[in-house]
Write a structure and sequence with these properties.
Elements: H1 3-7, H2 15-27, H3 31-43, H4 48-68, H5 74-98, E1 104-110, H6 118-129, E2 132-136, H7 143-152, E3 157-161, H8 170-180, E4 188-192, H9 198-204, E5 208-209, H10 213-233
Parallel strand pairs: 1-2, 1-3, 3-4, 4-5
Helix pairs in contact: 2-3, 2-4, 3-5, 4-5, 5-6, 6-10, 7-8
Length: 234
């Protein structure tokens, strides 16, 4: 911790400065500072949803972009994610109470044969931060696992992740099985992972390929809004 970090007393900052400081602290993975900042804003009468979106989701969006651009690396992202979790733990019960806007429900997991989960975890956290309910299946998921979960959880979105070129094709197995069972159109299917691209996403029949966590959140919101509109129209 640098000396000037010691000199900053969070409670003495005004709201705008505090949000900025919290975004910096989140970027640096300072969990205790984030928890303190969240509590200060709540004491000042901020709505839980606003605390979530401005300093936390705002900060994680920057982390997500810098991770994508190679400015931040996995250890730093995990630290930031840990700090975000600390803030989320305080906010979660309050968000439930205040009935924060529920965006939708997403089942997410890494595909069979693949044990990489950092990108997936980041997406899950950012989605949760944006008001989605997340059911995280973890790693190495066979098709049955995904399909059981989306049915059981009555999910809106299925998110699949892969980091290996050898496991990427398994996403198509899942989507093809959904088609065979006649349930493909009941769900929004989002895919992501380093070796994927938009062309691959289209080729396997996914609704969209999301290159990073920030894009995943925006894409999910767009599709959910569209789904609601169709629901109204039909």
């Amino acid at each position: 911790m640098s000396e000037n970090e010691d000199d900053i007393i969070l409670s003495e900052l005004d709201d705008e400065e505090l949000v900025q400081q919290m975004m910096d602290d989140l970027y640096d993975g300072l969990k205790e500072e984030i928890e303190e900042g969240v509590n200060i804003l709540l004491e000042r009468g901020w709505e839980p949803y606003r605390v979530l979106t401005e300093p936390l989701v705002g900060g994680m969006t920057i982390v997500g972009h810098d991770f994508r651009d190679g400015i931040l690396f996995v250890p730093e992202v995990l630290l930031a994610a840990g700090a975000m979790k600390g803030g989320m733990a305080i906010l979660k019960p309050l968000l439930v109470e205040t009935g924060a806007p529920k965006q939708g429900k997403m089942v997410i997991g890494t595909v069979k044969g693949d044990i990489h989960d950092i990108g997936k975890n980041l997406v899950a956290m950012m989605m949760e931060g944006a008001g989605f309910e997340i059911v995280d299946l973890g790693i190495n998921n066979p098709v049955e696992e995904y399909l059981d979960a989306i049915r059981r959880e009555e999910a809106d979105i299925l998110g699949m992740s892969a980091l290996l070129t050898t496991t990427m094709p398994y996403m198509k197995v899942v989507i093809d099985t959904m088609k065979e069972q006649g349930i493909r159109d009941d769900y929004i299917v989002l895919v992501g992972g380093a070796p994927l691209n938009e062309e691959f996403g289209r080729a396997i029949g996914a609704d969209a390929y999301c290159r990073d966590a920030a894009v995943a959140v925006e894409t999910a919101k767009t599709f959910i809004a569209r789904k609601h509109n169709q629901g109204v129209a039909s």
